[in-house]
Amino acid sequence: MPADESLQNVNHYSPERLVAGLRKLLTVERLDADLYRGRNRDDERDRVFGGQVIAQALAAACETVEDERIVHSLHAYFLRGGEPGQPIIYRVERDFDGRSFSNRRVIAIQHGQPILNFSASFQRPADGLTHQFAMPDVPMPEELPGEVERLEGQDNVPAEFLERMRARPRPIEFRTVEPRFAGGGNKRPPYQHAWLRAVAPVDGPPSLHRTMFAFASDMLLLGTSMLPHGIHWATEKLSMTSIDHALWFHEDFRIDDWLLFAMDSPWTGHARGFNRGMIFARDGRLVASVTQEGMMRVRG
Fewest CB atoms within 10 Å of the CB: 63, 164, 252, 288? Predict the structure, then answer.
Protein backbone atom coordinates (compact mmCIF):
# COMPACT_ATOMS: atom_id res chain seq x y z
CA MET A 1 0.00 0.00 0.00
CA PRO A 2 1.39 3.43 -0.86
CA ALA A 3 1.94 5.99 1.86
CA ASP A 4 -1.27 7.74 2.85
CA GLU A 5 -1.75 10.90 0.83
CA SER A 6 -4.55 12.37 2.92
CA LEU A 7 -2.15 14.28 5.17
CA GLN A 8 0.27 15.43 2.47
CA ASN A 9 0.45 19.13 1.61
CA VAL A 10 -1.83 19.83 4.54
CA ASN A 11 -1.04 23.53 4.45
CA HIS A 12 -3.43 23.68 1.47
CA TYR A 13 -6.22 21.92 3.35
CA SER A 14 -9.14 23.27 5.34
CA PRO A 15 -9.61 22.26 9.00
CA GLU A 16 -12.31 19.81 7.87
CA ARG A 17 -9.91 18.10 5.46
CA LEU A 18 -7.19 17.97 8.10
CA VAL A 19 -9.50 16.16 10.51
CA ALA A 20 -10.81 13.89 7.75
CA GLY A 21 -7.21 13.04 6.91
CA LEU A 22 -6.46 12.12 10.51
CA ARG A 23 -9.59 9.97 10.67
CA LYS A 24 -8.53 8.16 7.50
CA LEU A 25 -5.00 7.66 8.84
CA LEU A 26 -6.32 6.05 12.03
CA THR A 27 -8.78 3.74 10.22
CA VAL A 28 -7.30 0.25 9.83
CA GLU A 29 -8.01 -2.17 6.97
CA ARG A 30 -9.08 -5.74 7.79
CA LEU A 31 -6.84 -8.27 6.00
CA ASP A 32 -8.02 -11.47 7.69
CA ALA A 33 -9.47 -12.63 10.98
CA ASP A 34 -7.94 -10.37 13.68
CA LEU A 35 -5.31 -9.08 11.24
CA TYR A 36 -5.29 -5.44 10.15
CA ARG A 37 -3.17 -3.02 8.15
CA GLY A 38 -2.61 0.61 9.08
CA ARG A 39 -1.80 3.37 6.61
CA ASN A 40 1.40 5.29 7.01
CA ARG A 41 2.65 8.56 5.61
CA ASP A 42 5.94 9.92 4.43
CA ASP A 43 7.31 12.32 7.00
CA GLU A 44 10.39 14.40 7.71
CA ARG A 45 10.73 12.47 10.97
CA ASP A 46 13.10 9.52 10.99
CA ARG A 47 10.45 7.36 12.65
CA VAL A 48 6.67 7.01 12.79
CA PHE A 49 4.96 9.17 15.42
CA GLY A 50 4.27 6.96 18.43
CA GLY A 51 0.75 8.32 18.96
CA GLN A 52 -0.18 7.13 15.47
CA VAL A 53 0.88 3.54 16.20
CA ILE A 54 -0.96 3.55 19.55
CA ALA A 55 -4.13 4.90 17.94
CA GLN A 56 -4.04 2.42 15.05
CA ALA A 57 -3.46 -0.47 17.48
CA LEU A 58 -6.47 0.73 19.48
CA ALA A 59 -8.55 1.00 16.29
CA ALA A 60 -7.64 -2.61 15.43
CA ALA A 61 -8.55 -3.81 18.93
CA CYS A 62 -11.89 -1.94 18.78
CA GLU A 63 -12.78 -3.86 15.61
CA THR A 64 -12.81 -7.13 17.61
CA VAL A 65 -15.14 -6.19 20.50
CA GLU A 66 -18.88 -5.48 20.76
CA ASP A 67 -19.79 -1.85 20.08
CA GLU A 68 -21.27 -1.42 23.56
CA ARG A 69 -17.91 -2.25 25.18
CA ILE A 70 -15.83 0.93 25.32
CA VAL A 71 -12.07 1.05 25.90
CA HIS A 72 -11.23 2.23 29.40
CA SER A 73 -7.48 1.60 29.51
CA LEU A 74 -4.52 0.80 27.29
CA HIS A 75 -0.85 0.06 27.85
CA ALA A 76 1.85 0.15 25.18
CA TYR A 77 5.58 -0.51 24.93
CA PHE A 78 7.56 0.97 22.07
CA LEU A 79 10.09 -1.60 20.84
CA ARG A 80 11.48 -0.18 17.59
CA GLY A 81 11.01 3.00 15.62
CA GLY A 82 8.55 2.53 12.76
CA GLU A 83 9.61 3.44 9.23
CA PRO A 84 7.61 6.33 7.67
CA GLY A 85 5.91 5.64 4.36
CA GLN A 86 5.53 1.89 4.97
CA PRO A 87 2.32 0.17 6.16
CA ILE A 88 2.08 -1.38 9.62
CA ILE A 89 0.42 -4.74 10.32
CA TYR A 90 -1.60 -5.20 13.53
CA ARG A 91 -2.24 -8.70 14.88
CA VAL A 92 -4.96 -8.87 17.55
CA GLU A 93 -5.22 -11.57 20.22
CA ARG A 94 -8.63 -12.01 21.91
CA ASP A 95 -7.38 -12.85 25.39
CA PHE A 96 -10.60 -12.48 27.36
CA ASP A 97 -14.33 -11.81 27.00
CA GLY A 98 -16.28 -11.77 30.27
CA ARG A 99 -19.73 -10.53 31.21
CA SER A 100 -18.52 -6.94 31.67
CA PHE A 101 -14.91 -6.74 30.47
CA SER A 102 -12.91 -7.73 27.39
CA ASN A 103 -9.15 -7.70 26.96
CA ARG A 104 -7.19 -7.52 23.71
CA ARG A 105 -3.48 -7.79 22.94
CA VAL A 106 -2.06 -6.25 19.77
CA ILE A 107 1.36 -6.58 18.17
CA ALA A 108 2.28 -3.90 15.62
CA ILE A 109 4.62 -5.35 12.97
CA GLN A 110 6.73 -3.74 10.26
CA HIS A 111 9.18 -5.62 8.01
CA GLY A 112 8.47 -8.78 10.00
CA GLN A 113 9.55 -7.29 13.33
CA PRO A 114 7.39 -6.07 16.23
CA ILE A 115 7.57 -2.31 16.78
CA LEU A 116 4.89 -2.05 19.51
CA ASN A 117 3.36 -4.32 22.14
CA PHE A 118 -0.10 -3.14 23.14
CA SER A 119 -2.96 -4.25 25.38
CA ALA A 120 -6.37 -2.70 26.00
CA SER A 121 -9.31 -3.37 28.29
CA PHE A 122 -12.95 -2.72 27.35
CA GLN A 123 -16.03 -2.48 29.58
CA ARG A 124 -19.79 -2.35 29.29
CA PRO A 125 -21.08 0.90 30.88
CA ALA A 126 -21.75 0.46 34.61
CA ASP A 127 -22.66 2.61 37.61
CA GLY A 128 -20.44 2.93 40.69
CA LEU A 129 -18.94 5.21 43.33
CA THR A 130 -17.46 8.45 42.01
CA HIS A 131 -14.89 11.08 42.96
CA GLN A 132 -12.23 13.06 41.09
CA PHE A 133 -9.53 15.70 41.44
CA ALA A 134 -10.56 19.27 40.69
CA MET A 135 -9.52 20.87 37.41
CA PRO A 136 -6.56 23.27 37.77
CA ASP A 137 -7.35 26.97 37.76
CA VAL A 138 -5.83 28.10 34.46
CA PRO A 139 -6.88 30.55 31.72
CA MET A 140 -9.53 29.27 29.32
CA PRO A 141 -8.46 28.56 25.72
CA GLU A 142 -10.16 31.69 24.37
CA GLU A 143 -7.81 33.76 26.55
CA LEU A 144 -4.66 32.17 25.12
CA PRO A 145 -2.80 32.72 21.82
CA GLY A 146 -2.72 30.07 19.13
CA GLU A 147 0.24 27.71 19.03
CA VAL A 148 2.20 29.47 16.27
CA GLU A 149 1.51 32.90 17.76
CA ARG A 150 2.75 31.69 21.16
CA LEU A 151 5.95 30.26 19.65
CA GLU A 152 6.67 33.40 17.62
CA GLY A 153 6.63 35.48 20.79
CA GLN A 154 8.99 33.20 22.69
CA ASP A 155 12.76 32.86 23.03
CA ASN A 156 14.70 29.60 22.60
CA VAL A 157 12.29 28.12 20.05
CA PRO A 158 14.20 26.02 17.47
CA ALA A 159 13.95 27.80 14.11
CA GLU A 160 13.31 24.57 12.19
CA PHE A 161 10.41 23.68 14.51
CA LEU A 162 8.80 27.09 14.14
CA GLU A 163 9.15 26.95 10.36
CA ARG A 164 7.54 23.51 10.26
CA MET A 165 4.65 24.69 12.43
CA ARG A 166 4.02 27.64 10.12
CA ALA A 167 4.15 25.49 6.98
CA ARG A 168 2.19 22.48 8.17
CA PRO A 169 -1.04 22.97 10.12
CA ARG A 170 -2.10 19.99 12.20
CA PRO A 171 -5.49 18.33 12.77
CA ILE A 172 -5.03 18.73 16.54
CA GLU A 173 -4.41 22.25 17.86
CA PHE A 174 -2.84 23.22 21.17
CA ARG A 175 -2.96 26.39 23.24
CA THR A 176 -0.32 26.24 25.95
CA VAL A 177 -0.62 28.08 29.26
CA GLU A 178 3.14 28.22 29.94
CA PRO A 179 5.92 28.87 27.38
CA ARG A 180 6.48 25.75 25.28
CA PHE A 181 10.29 25.50 25.35
CA ALA A 182 12.66 26.11 28.24
CA GLY A 183 16.13 25.52 26.79
CA GLY A 184 19.24 27.65 27.01
CA GLY A 185 19.67 26.62 30.63
CA ASN A 186 16.33 28.27 31.49
CA LYS A 187 14.98 25.78 34.02
CA ARG A 188 11.32 25.55 34.97
CA PRO A 189 9.26 23.50 37.44
CA PRO A 190 8.25 20.10 36.00
CA TYR A 191 4.67 20.86 35.04
CA GLN A 192 2.80 22.39 32.11
CA HIS A 193 -0.79 22.87 30.94
CA ALA A 194 -2.25 22.95 27.45
CA TRP A 195 -5.71 23.04 25.93
CA LEU A 196 -6.22 20.80 22.89
CA ARG A 197 -8.94 19.92 20.41
CA ALA A 198 -9.50 18.75 16.85
CA VAL A 199 -9.58 21.72 14.46
CA ALA A 200 -12.97 20.71 12.98
CA PRO A 201 -16.07 18.78 14.14
CA VAL A 202 -15.70 15.00 14.50
CA ASP A 203 -18.82 13.01 13.68
CA GLY A 204 -18.50 9.56 15.18
CA PRO A 205 -19.02 7.28 18.18
CA PRO A 206 -17.19 7.65 21.54
CA SER A 207 -14.63 5.07 20.38
CA LEU A 208 -13.53 7.40 17.55
CA HIS A 209 -13.06 10.34 19.94
CA ARG A 210 -11.01 8.11 22.26
CA THR A 211 -8.88 6.83 19.38
CA MET A 212 -8.16 10.37 18.20
CA PHE A 213 -7.21 11.42 21.72
CA ALA A 214 -4.88 8.39 21.97
CA PHE A 215 -3.10 9.87 18.92
CA ALA A 216 -2.84 13.31 20.57
CA SER A 217 -1.85 11.99 24.01
CA ASP A 218 1.72 11.32 22.83
CA MET A 219 2.29 15.03 22.13
CA LEU A 220 3.89 17.39 24.72
CA LEU A 221 3.93 14.84 27.56
CA LEU A 222 7.55 13.63 27.29
CA GLY A 223 8.89 17.19 27.23
CA THR A 224 7.58 17.81 30.75
CA SER A 225 10.46 15.83 32.29
CA MET A 226 12.99 18.09 30.51
CA LEU A 227 11.71 21.37 31.94
CA PRO A 228 13.69 21.24 35.26
CA HIS A 229 16.89 20.61 33.29
CA GLY A 230 16.68 23.54 30.87
CA ILE A 231 16.65 21.35 27.76
CA HIS A 232 14.21 20.46 24.98
CA TRP A 233 14.07 17.96 22.12
CA ALA A 234 16.35 20.08 19.86
CA THR A 235 19.07 20.43 22.52
CA GLU A 236 22.46 19.47 21.09
CA LYS A 237 23.60 15.94 22.00
CA LEU A 238 20.21 15.04 23.47
CA SER A 239 18.90 11.56 22.63
CA MET A 240 15.24 11.06 23.51
CA THR A 241 12.53 8.49 22.72
CA SER A 242 9.38 7.09 24.30
CA ILE A 243 9.63 3.76 26.13
CA ASP A 244 6.05 3.13 27.17
CA HIS A 245 2.65 4.79 27.30
CA ALA A 246 -0.47 4.09 29.38
CA LEU A 247 -3.86 5.75 29.07
CA TRP A 248 -7.05 5.45 31.13
CA PHE A 249 -10.41 6.76 29.94
CA HIS A 250 -12.78 7.76 32.77
CA GLU A 251 -15.67 9.56 31.07
CA ASP A 252 -16.99 10.24 27.59
CA PHE A 253 -15.76 13.40 25.90
CA ARG A 254 -15.52 15.01 22.50
CA ILE A 255 -12.11 15.52 20.88
CA ASP A 256 -13.56 18.49 18.94
CA ASP A 257 -14.28 20.41 22.17
CA TRP A 258 -11.48 21.89 24.26
CA LEU A 259 -9.74 19.50 26.68
CA LEU A 260 -7.24 20.64 29.31
CA PHE A 261 -4.05 18.53 29.41
CA ALA A 262 -2.47 19.04 32.87
CA MET A 263 1.01 17.45 32.92
CA ASP A 264 3.71 16.93 35.53
CA SER A 265 6.93 14.96 35.93
CA PRO A 266 7.55 13.64 39.46
CA TRP A 267 10.93 12.05 38.67
CA THR A 268 13.83 11.66 36.26
CA GLY A 269 16.85 9.40 36.68
CA HIS A 270 18.87 6.54 35.18
CA ALA A 271 18.50 8.10 31.69
CA ARG A 272 14.70 8.00 31.98
CA GLY A 273 12.04 10.64 32.51
CA PHE A 274 8.60 9.85 33.97
CA ASN A 275 5.56 11.96 33.06
CA ARG A 276 1.89 12.07 34.05
CA GLY A 277 -1.14 13.85 32.69
CA MET A 278 -4.74 14.48 33.69
CA ILE A 279 -7.23 15.45 30.99
CA PHE A 280 -10.27 17.56 31.88
CA ALA A 281 -13.28 18.56 29.82
CA ARG A 282 -13.93 22.27 30.00
CA ASP A 283 -16.91 21.60 32.30
CA GLY A 284 -14.40 20.33 34.92
CA ARG A 285 -14.89 16.57 34.50
CA LEU A 286 -11.73 14.45 34.71
CA VAL A 287 -12.15 12.39 31.52
CA ALA A 288 -8.78 10.62 31.15
CA SER A 289 -5.35 10.07 32.73
CA VAL A 290 -2.06 9.20 31.06
CA THR A 291 1.51 8.25 32.00
CA GLN A 292 4.61 7.95 29.87
CA GLU A 293 8.26 7.15 30.47
CA GLY A 294 10.95 8.06 27.99
CA MET A 295 14.65 7.45 27.48
CA MET A 296 16.53 10.74 27.90
CA ARG A 297 20.31 10.98 27.52
CA VAL A 298 22.48 14.07 27.15
CA ARG A 299 25.84 12.90 25.81
CA GLY A 300 29.05 14.59 26.84
Answer: 164
CB contact set of 112 (below 8 Å; sequence gap of 6+): none
pLDDT at 237: 85
Please indicate, yes or no, whether residues 116 and 156 belong to a single structural domain of this protein. Answer: no
Residue at 133 is within a domain: no
Helical spans, DSSP H, in the chain: 15-25, 50-62, 147-152, 159-167, 206-216
Radius of gyration of the chain (CA): 19
The model's pTM: 0.93
Report the pLDDT value the prediction gives residue 215, as an integer from 0 to 100.
Answer: 98
Contact 255, 198 (CB under 8 A): yes
CATH of the domain at 47: 3.10.129.10
Strand partners, 243: none
pLDDT of residue 164: 79
Range of 297's domain?
140-300
Q: Are residues 61 and 17 in the same domain?
A: yes
CA separation for the pair 261, 248 (Å, rounded):
14
The Cα 82–Cα 108 span in angstroms is 9
Residue 166 lies in a domain: yes
Sign of the alpha-carbon dihedral angle for 110, 209, 276, 65 = negative
Instruction: Please indicate, yes or no, whether residues 45 and 146 belong to a single structural domain of this protein.
Output: no
**Is residue 271 a contact partner of residue 297, using CB atoms and an 8 Å limit?**
yes
Where in the sequence numbering do the catalytic residues fall?
218, 242, 292
Distances (CA, A) of 223 to 32, 129, 130, 161, 162: 39, 34, 31, 14, 16
Which residues of the chain are modeled with pLDDT < 50? 1-11
* Residue 26: DSSP 8-state: T
